[in-house]
Amino acid sequence: MPARQVVSPHLAALGQLEYRKAFLILNYIGKRKLEDAISVDEILELKNLPMSTFESKVWRALCHNDIDEKDRRKNFDWDTRKPHVYHCYVDLQGQCTFEGPFLQNSRTHLQRVLGDENVLVVKFAEDDGADKNKMEHSGSNALYHNIAKNGILVGLRRYRFFVFKDGGKEEKKKNPHSSPVRCYFVLMETDAESDMQLQYILLNKSVHEARKIFMHIHNVPTISKYMARLSLILSKTSKLEVDMAHVNLSCIEDIPCMDEYGNIVYDEKGEPKIHTDGTGFISQDLAIKCPKNIYREDVQRIILQDGNKQEVSTTNYKYLIGEPPLLIQCRLFNDGCAVKGTLLLDKRLPPHTILIRPSMIKVDTDRNESTEQSVNSLEIVARSNQPKKASVSKFLIALLHYGGVPKEYFIELLMTYIEDAQHASLNKQAALAVAQRHGDMDNFLVSRMILCGIPLDEPYLQLRLSEHMNSEKKGLKNFKLPINDSYYLMGTVDPTGTLSCNQVCVILDSGQVSGEVLVYKHPGLHFGDVHVLTAIYVKDMEDIIGNAKYAIFFPTKGQRSLADEIANSDFDGDIYAISEAADSWLAYMDRLLTLSDECVEEKECLREKMLQLVDIYYDAVDAPKSGLKVKLLFHDVMVFLIHELQYGLEEILYGATEFNESTREREDIFKEAIAIYQVTYNYAKAEDDVGKCRFAWSVAGHGLCALHAIEQEKDAILCVSSVLRDILR
Q: What InterPro entries does the annotation carry (predicted)?
């Protein structure tokens, strides 16, 4: 560590604090010096305060008019063990300001291994001026060299550059004045008193040695792939609770593409083309451990029938997991090797087995390196869940229209959604149509509210309809039209070898789909990005995946991978849009989709016209501008409720995961639901914020709907959500 001057009393005092407390002080002082903002005695007086009290006192003592209220780190759940994220912003003069800690729901592999407090997310200011001169460029280089040499000091902790990730255009939109690149610095040295007993894996290591703990990154073939491969540790994941030492990890060969004579087909680089790019297999006993919409870092609170509370890790939540996922998108780290891709459930495999392919291996193990300190882990990025409804994008509209689908089809579709969005707050039929399209977001709560007779002018119902309408208008502004019987599914390859070149197997909630389907991959700027394929039933599939659902299987036959034809896709987690209801345009697509390779001139003509159409659509998109009286201290009650009930909200009221599964007396549930409703709405009224009403419906929505339906004194008609969707098409 570079030699330091005598440590100031202020920094020494700051070093006695828990890290997140010290960081919060540095956040709230902004660009002021620590010595000018707070005294040593004041720092030490704050040392032993609980975090919520600490934040309030520091805010009152330091912020004044320097920081907006919206930037205040006021959290009611400091102690819920949620991941903490710490940000640093470096301006053009090299001055650092700190932001955070931010509480999130998921961690990266980097955070999980090192600890939240040992990772610093750094963004650099970017000079957007058009007249950048050499002097400015030289100054920027000097700044970067200085930080690369000395790192960034957070109090008495020194963080050094470790890895970066480019957020692209989306990250740039968030802040046009800073770089879209996020740099991740990690703790390498510390003089803080609170760290003296720290058992930290990176202490006294070089950055190169530290990186080898995650993967043998020096083994990548080119410099250009170095950071891209290392950034695999930055994916937000949940860890599969499995000891990799007891897992049988084997590598099987990729399936090559072959011509009609059985010869392997090679690409322009001389590498064999493959059908299985990015996908392997996992045994059922491991797959079933994959949580369903649960982050492993969260501590779940189970409310027992006798009222006792027990905190348990999500590893004990097996009874909530159910059927194993059909497909798992993952990152796997083992003995210096880094793997990226998807794992398909294979019930035929022996327990504790994972099969990967060479195409999944992004960093190979260096056999000359020790793997004693390697961090081995299977990290889950996503799993095949019930799919979201797919939309027709402006690119696909352009392709389909040129292929012969009449423009009137899209105009009629657009007008239907505009009409529903405009009248949803006044017309029950339009409101129900909008609500069911967004039913997956709230378990059809808004639909339940409408169907049980709650008036459309009910405040929370109005709020939710307004949010749904705004969401639809935003989608329409970007020319995204939802289509019935269209879904987004993760893709993999046929493990049975049954499918022919233009066949797929699509598995949804009701099982395998049969018939013509349209398969598309965003962004879809080329003709091959949309395919009309035949979905068939594959009997042997059931022996491999059982009752698992939600994926599309592509064939392992042909001279080129079918996924590669669709927007140069692969199977490491790519999502495909599938439309069952393609009948309305399939008849028009032959001209576009059946052009042979010999039709070069016609294809070139089509390409030019398509580019013109895309420009026209871009211009079009840019055109729009877009009963009981309860006397309580509402704020205190709501803070308590939000803090105490954020886990297992419905379980607390119903004694079960769902209202219909409850064994409690209905009368008791209704009384408590009414009490929650009244307290919440009184608090929302006092705060003049209708959004606060959300809490009552999140906790007691199903009970309140059932109570309102009973009070109508009319017969209720049972309706399944899928039937409701069919009716409202």
A: RDRP, RDRP_C_head, RDRP_core, RDRP_helical
Instruction: Report the C-alpha gap between 564 and 569 in whole angstroms.
Output: 5
What CA–CA distance (Å, rounded) separates 401 from 589? 9
pLDDT, tens only, 321-353: 467 999 999 999 999 999 999 999 999 999 999
84 membership: H or E segment, kind and range: strand 84-90
Q: Are 27 and 100 in contact (CB under 8 A)?
A: yes
Q: Token pair of 473, please?
A: 């208008």
Query: Which stretch of DSSP H or E encloses residue 439?
Result: helix 439-442
Residues with Cβ within 8 Å of 294's Cβ and at least 6 positions away in sequence, in order, are 238, 300, 314, 317, 320
666-687 and 634-644 helices cross at what angle (nearest 10)? 120
User: With the C-alpha atoms ordered 655, 660, 663, 668, is the resulting torsion angle positive or negative?
Assistant: positive
- The Cα 591–Cα 401 span in angstroms is 11
Q: Residue 145 and residue 143: Cα distance in Å, rounded?
A: 5
Per-residue pLDDT tens digits for 680-697: 888 888 888 888 888 888
Report the DSSP pairing between strands 481-493 and 551-554. parallel
- Alpha carbon distances (Å) from 341 to 215, 293, 294, 368, 379: 16, 19, 20, 26, 11
Encoded amino acid at 144, one letter: Y
Query: What are 399's two structure tokens?
Result: 């392709």
What single-letter amino acid sits at 167?
Answer: G
Q: Which DSSP category does 273 fall into?
A: P
Query: CA-CA distance, 686 to 101, in Å (whole number)?
Result: 30
Q: How many other CB atoms are found less than 10 A from the CB of residue 617?
A: 17
d(CA 391, CA 376): 39
- The Cα-based distances of 272 to 69, 216, 269 in angstroms read 58, 26, 9
Q: What is the DSSP string of 365-432?
A: --TTS--TT---EEEEEEE--SPPEEEE-HHHHHHHHHHT--HHHHHHHHHHHHHHHHHTTT-HHHHH
Nearest alpha carbon to residue 711 among 523, 487, 338, 454 = 454
Which domains, from first to last, does the chain contain? 9-204 (no CATH), 236-383 (no CATH), 389-417+480-621 (2.40.40.20), 634-722 (no CATH)
Reply yes or no on whether the pLDDT at 606 is more than 60. Answer: no
Question: How far is 84 from 390, CA to CA, in rounded Å?
Answer: 33
Ranked by mean pLDDT, the top range of 420-429, 633-642, 673-682 is: 673-682
Q: Does residue 241 come out as left (phi exceeding 0), alpha (psi in the -120 to 50 range) or beta?
A: beta
Q: How many residues does the chain have?
A: 729
Indicate if the pLDDT at residue 195 is higher than 80: yes
> Do 318 and 241 form a contact (C-beta atoms < 8 A)?
no
Residue 513 has φ and ψ, to the nearest 5°, of -95, 145
User: What is the CB neighbour count within 10 angstroms for residue 156?
Assistant: 20
Two tokens, residue 432: 């129900």
Q: Are strands 481-493 and 361-363 parallel, antiparallel or unpaired?
A: unpaired
Q: Of 480, 488, 422, 431, which Cα lies nearest the Cα of 456? A: 431
